[in-house]
Amino acid sequence: MHKIAFVIGQLSVGGTERQLLTLVEHLDRRQFSPLVICLSSRAPLADSFREIDCPLYVLEREESGRFNTLWRVYRVLREFRPDIVHTFAYAARAGIPAAKFGGKARTIQAIRTDPYWQFGFWDRWVLKETDLLLANSQQTIQTLSKLATNLPKHQVICNGLDLSKFEIERQKWHAPLPQGAVTDGSQKIICAVARLQPVKALEVLIQAYALVQRQFPDTQLWLVGDGPQRGELETLANQLQIRAQVIFWGIRSDVPAILNHAAIGVLSSKVEGLPNAIIEYMAAGLPVVATKVGGNPELVIQGETGLLVPPGDGAALSEALLYLVRNPEVACGFGKAGRLHVQENLTVERMVGKTEELYRELLGRHD
Predict the structure, then answer these.
(1) Which of 40, 137, 274, 362 has minimal CB crowding within 10 Å?
(2) Which of 356, 357, 346 is closest to 161 using CA atoms?
(3) CATH topology of domain 163-345
(4) Using one digit for the tens of pLDDT, what is the confidence trace for 261-308?
(5) Closest-CA residue to 274 (of 157, 171, 130)
(6) What kind of fold does domain 2-160+347-364 have according to CATH?
(7) φ/ψ of residue 140, rounded to 5
């Protein structure tokens, strides 16, 4: 039995956090015993890890400070004695040194988006001390190669989705619908699943949708997620006089049911890795409009599964949305191609299998 310790900055309802939950849930427990260390007190997914019998430490870095957090990570790892320490993004700043000082564990640093946090000397040292760099897109590897010389051995494993959740018979509402949401088919729904924060550039999307709504009043824009920008985005929708057509769903656990009522999936981000939202859109059979950033072009094949637009370009975004609204047959073809791409390349079984294979390879090289 090999012990795997995962170190992550927070357990919010985000893409990386949900991918970790999926990985831990599907790991072969006959071969691998997991433990999760969350550095921050921001851990709404904590109960989900406990429900799948995964030991979890929430260290509340905000209260204890960085040095004490590093010390506590070291102590947990020393007691657990992992074979592999698998860190995520900036959590490597604590996880990799603690692993190096505390034993003989092999180390993995997973960076799942372009590192838009400050990538300084300490990050370069940590990366140098990492046994294996793991990314979910080729674009992330290319970005890191510009920030740090002599990257460690690296590998790309794409995100994985549980396609069974997108079967029609399993799609149910888990909570009441927000006021104003139309689900009777009389409105064409443009849907964005994203945390409401600046990096997602949802203000650009709302402005682009205002142009769409003027030409096609029988449309709605659904924003699924929550975050610090919600009030600001609601104000913008009011100012553009489309507040009644912009539906804020908040955080939901019934995304497949929501996407079943959508016609187009959209992502307007400034920065991305390999976003789960796009994979979910494709699994639901939706055509995708996304910005040409990060790993988005590795998912959205221009003119085959969707359309790519420059980040921050509201005019281009509205034109792409209008094209799909005006051409439903083309949109349907994009959606079918996207669903097939997910079935062939982006399943949870494929992601977990490749990760387990990676663990065995890493341990085999040092046994």
Answers:
(1) 40
(2) 346
(3) Rossmann fold (3.40.50)
(4) 999 999 999 988 889 999 999 999 999 999 999 899 999 999 999 999
(5) 157
(6) Rossmann fold (3.40.50)
(7) -60, -40
